[in-house]
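Entry 0007
Protein: Putative hydrolase
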Amino acid sequence: MLPAAVLLDMDGTLVDSESVYAEAIARYMASRGVELDSRERSFVIGHAWQDIYTELRVAERVGVDLVTMQTGSIAMRGQMRAEGIELTVLDGARELVETLAELDVPTAVVSGSCRAELAEAIELLRIGPRLRMYLGSEDYPRGKPAPDGYLAAADQLEVAPARCLVFEDSWAGIGSGLAAGMRVVATAAANRPPGDPGHQDQNGAHRIVQSLAGIDADFLRAVMLTS
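Output (structure tokens):
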């Protein structure tokens, strides 16, 4: 049985972006006199903007609201692009979305990035027409590992959570999919090596794959049968 819907994380799953986003946030905070340590930079991976804002104590340390922090951090990426620091598409990402479209499996993106960031990444991936919808950090109250984003997507697609398949890369994202009662596949394509502060423990997922390349109907059916 194929999944009734596939819900895709974006950062670290479809595009290699989390190191870029972490650097942009670190540059913004540094511009306001706050140097982030390695733990704080690593917290960016897999977490939504609202949780990053709280964890980094931005209100206390910088004195700005979430939207101001987002806008400032996103602006830093213009400087980074001039330095040749860009988002890159991960192996098999476009092909997976095309495969799901051919199989007529409803597909959505559920991310902790804001909708403006998602629009940029979706354009880079050239997958917009293949998606039923996408949800960013503005679209649900609690970020991953809370299940809110994935449950909201299942509700909007009118699909039972147990029949959804999630593709993720971070421990927070994996936890979110599991908390929503969904099957979860973790991709290790952008995962940092063990010992690195940004390394993600993916062992909670139903399956771990080295990349999204080669995902086909047989694989999707097999994961849905995994206990």
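Curator remark: The mean pLDDT is 95. The chain has ten helices and eight strands.
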